[in-house]
Structure formats: structure tokens, C-alpha cells
Specification:
Blueprint (H helix, E strand, L loop, with lengths): L6 E5 L8 E5 L5 E5 L6 H11 L3 E6 L5 H4 L2 H8 L4 E2 L11 H4 L23 E4 L2 E7 L8 E5 L4 E5 L2 E2 L2 E2 L9 H12 L7 E4 L5 E2 H7 L1 H5 L2
Parallel strand pairs: 3-4, 4-5, 9-12
Antiparallel strand pairs: 1-2, 2-3, 6-7, 7-8, 8-9, 10-11, 12-13
Helix pairs in contact: 1-3
Length: about 220
């Protein structure tokens, strides 16, 4: 029997083009929702999950900047009280507009999440038969996480690294030295053909970024 293939549905918002992801292996199976952001993402994600008869096991957050968490409440309204996973260093951002940076967009907002679950570096999560390692890629934000599946050769990296760039480090809670160190230790140590799915823009690979990303080559 052929092994099921991971499916990735991407929803974007028109302002920041943030990649909100739904990961699943088969129609009617379990899924993860990753970084549901600004409208219309939450509605698109909710509709897709229902169309595919998926069962959401978790909302996973690479980090808690506003464009990655704005859709959480709407998704939970439409699909039920799905557990929300976020590194504990970023829990304050769920309820504080200055932490999640939404105060830069206007009046700011807070989510209704009161019981987040931690994403400790080095631990693992499972989706169907796949196992994902949690890697610390903080620096852009205090508790940034990458979700890495060795068997699939895939890493979901949030805003830590992009095709040809890295996450901003000019926010009040950013740390550029920490980000570059984590990228070298946690991402550049992966096989060259590992696919990197960032929070914005197209996917890339470890090998491509190792060879050409100016921030990996020369630092910030």
C-alpha cells in the first residue's frame, strides 16, 4: 500500500501575505492548523477543513505576532475549542497588543485563548504517522519555533528565515544575534534538500539558503 502524502493547504491575507497552513494526510483524517492570520484566512481555513471532513488536533503557532494569530478565535468559533500550542515565552502576546504588535496596526487586539500549551525545544509532536521535532528558532520573536519532520524532509520555519532573507529583528522583543545563532544551529544543520516553508513568501531549501542567503553568509 502506498504511504499517504502530506497535503498542505495555504491561505493568505492580502495585506501581509502570511502563510496560514492546514496540514493533513487524507480526507477525513486529522489535521493541524498553523498560524491562522488576518482575514480572510480564518474563513478560508474553516471552510476547507469542513469540506475535507478533517478533525483539527491542534492550532500550532510558530510565534505570536499579530499576522500569525489574528484568525485563532474565528477558527475556534467555526471548528470548536481546538488546543492552541505556543512557546511559553510568547504566551503574553495572546492577550497583549504591544506583545503581539497589533498596536502598530491600530487599536490592537487580544485573542480569547486562556489555556495555551507549551512547545518546548527538543520535544516532538505527531500528526497521523508523522513525527515533528520542535526547534528553537527564536530571535525574531522571544519564542519562535520551527516544526521539523525528518522523514518528510520538511521544516515549517515561521518568520525565522525566508527565501533570501531572515525575520526582522528591530522589534522591542527581538534579538538579532540569537536569531542568527539559532538559524545556524537549528536550520543550517539540516540536510541541504530539506524544504523550508516560511511564514511569508515562497518555500526554499536549506541548501539554497546556505549558499546564497546573505544573512546566513555574513550575519546581520
Amino acid at each position: 500500500m502506498t504511504e499517504p502524502t502530506l497535503q498542505i493547504q495555504v491561505a493568505n491575507d492580502p495585506t501581509y501575505m502570511e502563510n496560514g497552513l492546514t496540514l493533513y494526510f487524507r480526507e477525513g483524517g486529522s489535521c493541524w492548523i498553523i498560524d491562522p492570520g488576518l482575514p480572510p484566512q480564518a474563513g478560508q481555513i474553516t471552510e476547507f477543513v469542513k469540506q475535507q471532513s478533517l478533525t483539527p488536533e491542534a492550532i500550532l503557532l510558530t510565534h505570536a505576532h499579530a499576522d500569525h494569530i489574528a484568525g485563532i478565535d474565528e477558527v475556534r468559533e467555526g471548528l470548536g475549542a481546538i488546543p492552541v500550542y505556543l512557546a511559553k515565552e510568547e504566551w503574553p502576546a495572546l492577550s497583549d497588543a504591544s506583545h503581539n504588535l497589533s498596536d502598530r496596526m491600530g487599536p490592537g487586539f487580544a485573542t480569547e485563548v486562556t489555556d495555551p500549551r507549551d512547545l518546548p525545544h527538543g520535544e516532538t509532536l505527531t500528526l497521523e504517522e508523522s513525527t515533528w521535532e520542535l526547534r528553537d528558532t527564536s530571535g525574531h520573536s522571544p519564542g519562535g519555533r520551527t516544526f521539523y519532520c525528518a522523514d518528510l524532509g520538511l521544516a515549517i520555519v515561521g518568520d525565522a528565515i525566508f527565501a533570501g532573507s531572515v525575520g526582522r529583528v528591530d522589534f522591542h522583543h527581538s534579538n538579532g544575534e540569537q536569531l542568527i545563532r539559532n538559524l545556524h544551529e537549528q536550520i543550517m544543520t539540516l540536510p541541504d534538500d530539506t524544504r523550508l516553508l516560511p511564514g511569508h513568501g515562497p518555500e526554499t531549501t536549506v541548501g539554497r539558503e546556505r549558499a546564497s542567503n546573505p544573512y546566513i553568509l555574513h550575519g546581520l
